[in-house]
């Protein structure tokens, strides 16, 4: 068994032998390896490799390989890795879950926070590959599962983690033990009652009129205490999942709003600061309330209207826009670099937050920006201008005509470029960093389905879309994988004397 180390350069190629005959994999800054031997010219490591099997499955295996730095890199073998105990790299990965959101935050000490989880099994599959070897006796600790808001494409995939425990294939099983669950307090009620559609104003719980506006006053704290009859089907499944985890170990379930920064105190000993910036709660005689939002003007809209910070001219009441607009928004800072997570924030709510930013009550500025609502046209240009991102990540994906929303919209992509604080900002889209092989004509193996579908032209996904970021607080690395083992799209930044990000050469050995 080798000694536990982490990679200490941006990218490190692992070869089959010290002569660099065959490239096996490229590891990144902060990735863990076991060092089994070392000379002046190379390091022999045990590492995880993913290989395609004859049936098309991509399976992980632990192998031996050699990191042999190029002389031109100026990096010696002794500098390529450092002992794991000295690791200072924060890792945040944005995972392609198709139409939805799913991100993983891993602190230098190994604390894990899950932000949303899509609406299918993809997030669970990714996590099972990332945290291998878990069992009921040795589950992966999860410091927090944060659901930005209660739309299915942000949390229905999380119960799939629990279901994976009984998967017939061991490699697809994942056992976790979450300690905390954070949410925005809004629970969707059943959409029909006695065979009739429930009006939007009744879909999110009790409401109250105040100064001519409607507010939701039935915000929930502990999801486990909500009656099943007050939840739609996805929420009931989520509650059942949380109940199972709670039976195994006490689970903290908490509603977050602006100012609840102490909820993330478990990261403070690693100098990771989290500021909760939304939703903005209104106090109605001691009762916390969220304003019911309306339908935005039909779009996409082009022009200065999107830069306004005054109230948006909405119509009616919209439960979907309300639950989106009151997403949990939080800013994570580590050293000199910051991330902003914005859920499905929309134009109306974005204007609220931007006004508070302009008044100095909160800080939206961030280097890495998880773009709201999968790149929807319902965005606030003023909000993006306040964030002024250097790196933007849009989480979106095509699945079917039913889930096609033309995400990301061209207006949104243009705004991300226009309002960045650097001349050449980076804009990533999770579905676009996935890679596919052309397979040609194919037929389904299920006879009945094959007769219905007929032959079709097939593609296979060879690399899932994951945007990976790494930082020690002084330097930032952003990279994606490729279907070609030799290729990575990678960028690095440091900060100049004024605190502005500046491009750096990516160090690959």
TrEMBL record:
Residues 100-174 form the Metallo-beta-lactamase domain. Signal peptide: none annotated. It comes from the Bacteria. Pfam families: Lactamase_B. This is Competence protein. It comes from Microvirga vignae.
